[in-house]
Structure prediction request, 283 residues.
Amino acid sequence: MLHIKCPHCGLRSQNEFAYGGDATVKRPELNKEVSDKEWDTFVYLRKSPRGKHLEFWHHISGCRQWFKVERDTVTHEIFKTLKPNEDN
Amino acid sequence: MTTTSALEKVYKKGLFGDHDNKKEDSLVKISEIKNLIIFQIVQYKNSSISIKDINFEGLQLNDEASKVISNSDTRILWSGPKNWLLVSSKKELLKSIHSSFKETDFAITDLSHSKAIIELEGNNSKEILKKGCPFNFNELRKNNCVNSVFNGITITIDMIEDNPNKIRLFALRSFGESLYDSITDASLEFGYKTL
Prediction:
């Protein structure tokens, strides 16, 4: 069981959260011509790293906010949590 | 306004669980709370108004996590950033809600009929909640609130009093009966009285 520090509520049990996928994926720019390949990459292609991974989590049973978590996919150690608009 | 009980089919008055040879005062008291008005207040992201300027019925709104601001009949629970749950027994508040929270800055939603409310009173209240909720209840003090889960049901916990503990639980109305069953199951070992 993980304990995740929500940037708004503090340390809470994993039971209250939902995993939201890779946080490094960038959506193609709006109002720009997007090729099928670019769109396919954005929608489907994901890395499966061994080690540090930046991911989205949703505090679904808490403050209902999305935030970013830097987690080790091997040890599950959580290094930091960030608000979605924060980079470091 | 009188609301129909969300727990009508499961709520029975009496003494239950391990209550033999125990003083009634030492039992956990469980009750359904009805006839409260509940409003969700959300400040829009593009709103520039400072919440410090908002004074509602003498209550100064704040955006501090887990804090409840209250007076004798109204409690405003922090639900998330720029998101509050207003709970009151004062029915005529609707007009002052709309005058204090301008519709250009706030979304106000009436949730009065969409919640089931269960109140636990007694020294074992926290022990009961610990059985199904992962939150660290040692941190929960008077006038704190928490959104969490109890046996998979999303709940809002409002700590009204700490001597003895008086805790109010809010769940979606459709989960009310399941929550009531879960809470009463967890209370059996302590013995409980429904009011």
In short: Chain B touches chain A at residues 65-66, 79-81, 83, 134-136, 146-149, 154 (CB under 8 Å). Chain B has a mean pLDDT of 93.
